[in-house]
Design brief:
The structure holds two protein chains of two kinds. By secondary structure, chain A is an alpha+beta fold. Chain A has a single domain, classed as Arc Repressor Mutant, subunit A. Chain A has helices at residues 12-22, 29-36, 40-52, 75-92; strands at residues 26-28, 56-63, 66-73. The longest helix of chain A has 18 residues, at 75-92. Strand 1 of chain A pairs antiparallel with strand 1 (88-89) of chain B.
């Protein structure tokens, strides 16, 4: 029987964010926006959803006078991402 | 707005995003090699020229320009890049960064006995340390040009055990060109080529 795909990850922008963060230790909001091509508002909403699910940690700091949002994938996020990729492979018979 | 994907699109998106992130990391890795490579060459040739012209060894103090100018340029260019592209840090990048900070610390430490003991083979030790750093970086990121240039740097460093007079500065400049500038340009060119291919 095929595993159900995690609905939180089965969305274009959230999956793009998780794919970037899985390859990195941390990334800031500007970097994620540049890599995903998303608008600030949409990216903020999706980051909130991932944070609420415990998939990412979001740290709001300041660099000089400028606010900076740094995101990191959590262990729960890594496991969810791994399970999602495994489920995908099952669907595609890879 | 949320867009749901089918399974095939999801897998393609994951592959594309991870690939793009790696490409960015390759481009970032070239910058410190080029900055510190060129700064080291210019400083080495400046010391060589000044000592040859004046025969005053006080000009060896110019060595301090490598970490000072190198970090200054790296900070300025890095800041401009961060402002434009945002900031990211990979696990591998921070590991490599810690290795280089350690090696730079040992190199700075080597400068102390170099000023006190005339026979201290500072050029050999510093070149060897830098070459080990380049090779380790290459081994960690599994990038052949870095490994090869690092090994060539190790071999060049041994020449400095025999060439110990002021001519050693020219060997030192050549070593920096081989182990830092050359792989830096190869890395930068490869990252640019990949970006063009995907554009």
């Amino acid at each position: 029987m095929l595993n159900q795909l995690d609905p939180l990850l089965h969305s274009e922008l959230r999956l793009a964010v998780m794919s970037v963060l899985i390859a990195l230790e941390e990334a800031d909001f500007v970097y994620l926006q540049e890599k995903t091509g998303a608008s600030s508002g949409n990216l903020s909403i999706q980051l909130d959803k991932l944070q609420s699910a415990g998939y990412i940690d979001v740290e709001k700091t300041y660099k000089g006078k400028k606010p900076r949002t740094v995101c990191r994938i959590t262990q729960k996020g890594v496991e969810a991402f791994r399970a999602y990729v495994e489920a995908l492979k099952g669907y595609l018979d890879v | 707005m949320e867009k749901n994907l089918n399974e095939k699109e999801s897998l393609e998106l994951i592959t594309r995003m991870i690939d793009n992130t790696r490409k960015g990391m390759e481009k970032n890795a070239a910058l410190p090699m080029l900055i510190f490579g060129y700064t080291s060459i210019v400083t080495t040739l400046a010391v060589w020229f000044a000592v040859i012209k004046t025969e005053n060894h006080i000009f060896h103090l110019l060595w301090i320009a490598i970490p000072v100018i190198g970090w200054l340029l790296y900070g300025l260019l890095g800041r401009a890049r961060t402002r434009r592209d945002g900031m990211s840090q990979s696990h591998m990048g921070s590991l490599i960064g810690r290795i280089w900070i350690f090696l730079a610390g040992v190199m700075m430490l080597c400068m102390v006995p170099a000023f006190v003991l005339r026979e201290f083979p500072a050029s050999f030790i510093m070149t060897l340390l830098a070459a080990i750093g380049v090779s380790c970086t290459g081994l960690l990121v599994r990038y052949a040009p870095l490994i090869i240039c690092g090994i060539l740097g190790v071999l060049t460093s041994f020449v400095l055990l025999w060439v110990t007079d002021i001519a050693s500065m020219v060997v030192l400049a050549a070593a920096f060109a081989i182990m830092m500038v050359l792989p830096g340009h190869i890395l930068h060119h490869a990252a640019n080529k990949k970006s063009e291919k995907n554009a």
